[in-house]
Structure formats: C-alpha cells, structure tokens
Amino acid sequence: MIKLFKFVAIAEGISYLILFFNMLVIKPQNLTLYKTLLFPVGMSHGLLFMGYVLLAFIIRNNQKWSFKELLIVQLASLLPFATFYVEKKYVRNA
C-alpha cells in the first residue's frame, strides 16, 4: 500500500504541474489545444488527488503519523511540488 501511495504522490504532483502548464503556457498560445487537454488532464489530476487523500488516511497508522504530520501530508496535495517532498520525507518503509 505504501508503494502505491508513493506512486500516486509522484503522479499527482506531475499531473498538478501539467495542469498548471496547460493553464499558464498553452492557454495563451493555443486556445484549441488548451480546451482539448483540459478535460483529460483535469480528470486524471482529480482522480489522483482523491487517491492521494484517501491513501494518506489509509496508511496513516502504518506510518505512525501524528495529526500534525497527517495535516502536512494532506496540505501538500494543494501545493505544487509539495507531494514530492512528502514522498521523500514522510513515507517510510517502502
């Protein structure tokens, strides 16, 4: 389960960055490409986000996270690059 969380954390971080790239770089240049990419990228990011949050709650006891650590892990899903940090610092035993 921890390996799955590590994979989802990295994939969620990458999808978040791709979503920002689509919004900030592609949209001003090519509106048609932006609209084409918006649904698949947004949907995949949404599913990975929900998986990240759910898996964090599931592996909380296994990782022996305090409430503060769980809160940090959950807040990391809202910040770009933060899931990469969580994957390195807070996920052990994988």
UniProtKB/TrEMBL annotation:
Keywords for the protein's UniProt record, in alphabetical order: Cell membrane, Membrane, Transmembrane, Transmembrane helix
Domain DUF3817 span(s) in chain numbering: 3-92
Membrane-spanning residues: 7-25, 37-58
Keyword Transmembrane set for record: yes
Name of the protein in its database record: DUF3817 domain-containing protein
Membrane-related topology note: Multi-pass membrane protein
Record-linked PANTHER family: MEMBRANE PROTEIN, MEMBRANE PROTEIN-RELATED
InterPro entries attached to this UniProt entry: DUF3817_TM
Subcellular location: Cell membrane
